[in-house]
What we know:
One of its GO terms (molecular function) is ATP hydrolysis activity. This protein is α/β, with parallel strands linked by helices and 421 residues long.
Amino acid sequence: MSYYIAPRFLDKLSVHITKNYLNLPNVKVPLLLGVHGRKGEGKSFQCDLVFEQMGVEAVYMSAGELESPDAGDPARLVRLRYLEAGELAKVRGKMAVLMINDIDAGMGRVDQFTQYTVNTQLVHGTLMNIADNPTNVQLPGSYNTDPTPRVPIIVTGNDLATLYAPLVRDGRMDKFYWEPDRGDRIGIVSGIFEVDRVDHRDIEKLVDTFPEQSIDFYGALRSRLYDEQVRQLIEDVGINRISQRVVNSTQAPPEFRKPDFSLPHLVDMGQALVREQKRLQELRLVEEYNRTIGNRGLGEINMTAPQSNSAKPAIAPPSTISYNGQPSSTRLSPELVSQVNQILGQGHRLGIEYVDERRFRMNSWNCYAMFQDDGSGAIAALESCLNEHQNDYVRLVGISSSDRRRVVETIVHRPIGKAVH
């Protein structure tokens, strides 16, 4: 089976990998390449196809390896894997890369329920150090005077903005947003159904029928076509004997006839998958649970206590103005209430974050609460946060509900004496 490699993807990876093995005069080459985009678009699989075509040796890490009950282990593992990739390039005489899949799942800070651990800090610091000194990577407790072979690092993720900002800055990490266009989708889906001899015109119509679906959708669609035959096998063998039939059986493996790959049948099965997706989105049980947890502990808010306007510039005299149908605050300025309602009115999740002076310089914010479709609760929580953190920075964050990207970050309160830039 031959799979489709998107030309843009091949160009970006091949240039980045090759450039890291060249000695370009007076050129600062970023060691890291961050491939990001929507879930299920085949980022990791496209990387594997490029590695295979280029003859590149890859050493892999997953997001689950970036955390450990023992502090320092993940950072040490990153260095070990980097040195292993360098040894592969040296011994086998081929280009090698270190590949870290879904890095934002292991190191990203999404909301107030994401724990920021010592290991998260150490892994961020380790990757920054390797990016700055790629030929001098040492393990704890030892020092090797020989230069370390330079090896490019490729990371994949859905939202790289959740990582520590200095790690993803230009010069350390080159970014590539992967969003396959219609031609790419048709090419990739044609590869999925190649062995099934599906007509190319049917592939085009199938892609056009589900233009908003990710690449993984079509792989799941092909798998769903075999459900009927598997169900028939269970009925023929008996549900109480199916385990003995398919596991360590002395009989020949079951054979299945070719399913119906006609376009109408593919569309019907695809629409069934879409209906399941919509049910999942409409229930939103986890979001409702998180909203309940986020609202706990706010306590009763004193709406009449006198406030100093100089200490809290976000607080205003009593007001009865309402915005976007939401009840207004009696103490927040109309502009601030408008910002809250504007973020929620666009369908985003609203986060309230705070940080003290020392951590503000490190850009290490703490989440106070998270809301969606609850303007009055968000306004009440913001008032409470401003009351409790008069000497801290407070900001509003808008998070896209579809792909969890941060689309808004606005500081609404600064400590006394700190100018607003």
